[in-house]
Amino acid sequence: MNIVPAAKIEKMRPDFGASQPLYVQIADRLRDLIIKGEVSVGDTLPSERSLQDLTGTSRVTIRKAISQLVSEGFLLSRRGVGTSIAAHIEQSGERLTGFTSDAVDRGEKPGTFWLHKVAAKPTSHEAQMLEIASNELVLRLGRVRLANKEPLAIEHAVVPADLVDGLHAIESSLYDALGVAGNAPITGTQKIGASDATAIEAGLLAISEGDSVLRIERHTYRADGRAVEYTRSVYRADRYLFVSELRREPKRTPLSD
Ligand code: GLP
Questions:
Q1: What is the C-alpha to C-alpha distance for residues 96 and 112, in angstroms, rounded to an integer?
Q2: Are 203 and 113 a contacting pair, CB within 8 Å?
Q3: In terms of pLDDT, which residue wins out, 89 or 109?
Q4: Minimum-distance ligand 1 atom for the alpha carbon of 176
Q5: CA 101 to ligand 1 centroid distance, Å
Q6: How far apart are CA 75 and CA 54, in angstroms?
Q7: Candidates 183, 218, 242: which one to mutate for ligand 1, based on the most atoms within 8 Å of Cβ?
């Protein structure tokens, strides 16, 4: 992780004669640098002391400017690590899409680093999750998912082997391979929980051990209700934001007879 260079911080120097509060000016300038891509996502701001010196302002001003941008989602503040430039991929919490198509839709180049790709007998848990007999084969797919070469997630997917045309049919996208075989998932459920990255996960995701990650468990089904996929994933919490649309249900009135 790089530190935002002093020359960029100096651009945040406020106009001391202006009527606008200093912290608002600093927040506006830093927000501008982030939006224009002049500072890179993931880069860390220098210490509070250097920020004060480089902008000629006080600790209170710096703190107010930072907390303004943290609340707007432009900065991430983590104890012991500092404040970094945040960028989240906004992921719909409801749409059933795959990693590859999501990356392509964002204009990014998806990539895969294979951890394993094998056909095997299911564990009893996998057989239960996929609602199959213990002697039916499954395909186990372990992948680090990348976008523009940046590792974003680790995924362990298990699918019934008869739903795709062999292991070789799965190149970059599982959903494409399922679709080609006429077994595209149509419905599903997903659970998302917060957790800390283990040392191995951190290594694969290029983050630090203990950094926040999102653990996701997805079950998907074909139109006829057959289970298609059971996937456990670890997503980088510093890069993903799951967004759900809310709609108030009309109030139910008690049945009167
Ligand atoms: C997402 C989901 C996974 C799913 C994958 C399919 O990442 N979390 O559960 O298996 O998409 O993506 P692709 O079609 O790129 O293999």
A1: 20
A2: no
A3: 109
A4: 14
A5: 9
A6: 19
A7: 218
Please report the atom of ligand 1 found closest to the CA of residue 235.
Answer: 8
Residues 166-202 pLDDT 10s: 999 999 899 999 999 999 999 999 999 999 999 999 9
Who contacts 201 (Cβ-Cβ below 8 Å, separation ≥6)?
154, 213, 234
pTM of the predicted model, to two decimals? 0.71
Query: What sections of the chain are H helices per DSSP?
Result: 6-10, 22-35, 48-55, 59-72, 99-105, 124-130, 174-180, 199-205
Q: Which residue has the higher pLDDT, 176 or 80?
A: 176
| Probe target for ligand 1 pocket from 145, 167, 174, with the most ligand atoms within 8 Å of CB | 174
What is the average pLDDT value for the chain, to the nearest integer?
91
